[in-house]
């Protein structure tokens, strides 16, 4: 069973190894963006009643640990991996639905959010799983005349998808046995499917494997599974709004709609203090592309990192290429309940330990729309929306 864990990835041509407390928040009402969210059909079961998604505290700890991790674990830092591992182990000790394979809750469409041991993956496998813009799903249907586990890589709504299917058998209340038997690409521009080039019938035991479900939430929203190669997978049927936002940023689709949902997910307005902004924040999306010079874009916080320290000390930092950085320094002060003013009064080019100052002075307003320990959404100068991810604590 050399490819057991590949049930969440792909058969041997791609890899013979395994593949694959709500935070405090300060929301304010947002402008309605006026566009209706349109989703690929495969996502329908994932987003039904998204606003009603709720998690028990240990599940929320796992969701928080996953926020900001790129490539479903392929680009995670050691600290991020440690936080996810701790959250997974906690849930496995808490235990969820007993005998999960005998529960109807295991059936349906699951989205892969995280996988461990990415270093064991093949180059082709990394191409699929590590790309943020691709969405990876697993469909589980065990109570039919043809029980199946199907893995799906959705490249985009415009391009198409890859579907890899396996005949499935329930071994016990925890384990599913499977055998890959068919696969194909579906491209939007073609009226026919393109076979996936794997001779399943000739692979023998190489096309077989198993998957244990070690945690299935009582809500049927979160599943943790482990393959026979020891790989851990975290999957969800429904996503918390912040997860949806980061997926939208990765795909570049319907970002404004999901921003509105994230902001609306918190009902009580709380006045934000300057202390809430402290930390290191990485800009992951802006509603306005900056075609200005690196110096101006850095000063206006439209690229790179923004570091807010105690007493409102502000530093915007951009690294256009290794070994060379632009930085702009100034202060940020609170001007209203959820509004701030940033003033930049100096700048410098940095290379190694050498600093070359340059004159730059500018100021801009910031309206805080949403913030927690992971994500910050602001409106700058009343028209530019920015999404930041926290990369370090205060």
From TrEMBL:
Predominant localisation class: plastid
Task: Give me the segments passing through the membrane.
Answer: none
One of the Pfam families matching this protein, by short name: PAP_fibrillin
Q: Does the keyword Protease apply?
A: no
Q: Which InterPro entries is this protein grouped with?
A: PAP, PAP/fibrillin_dom
The record lists the lineage as: Eukaryota, Viridiplantae, Streptophyta, Embryophyta, Tracheophyta
Q: Where is the Plastid lipid-associated protein/fibrillin conserved domain?
A: 61-235
Keyword Plastid among record annotations? yes
Q: What is this protein called?
A: Plastid lipid-associated protein/fibrillin conserved domain-containing protein
- List the keywords (alphabetical): Plastid, Transit peptide
Instruction: Give the source's domain of life in one word.
Output: Eukaryota
Where does this protein reside within or beyond the cell? Answer: Plastid
Q: Name one GO cellular component term.
A: plastid
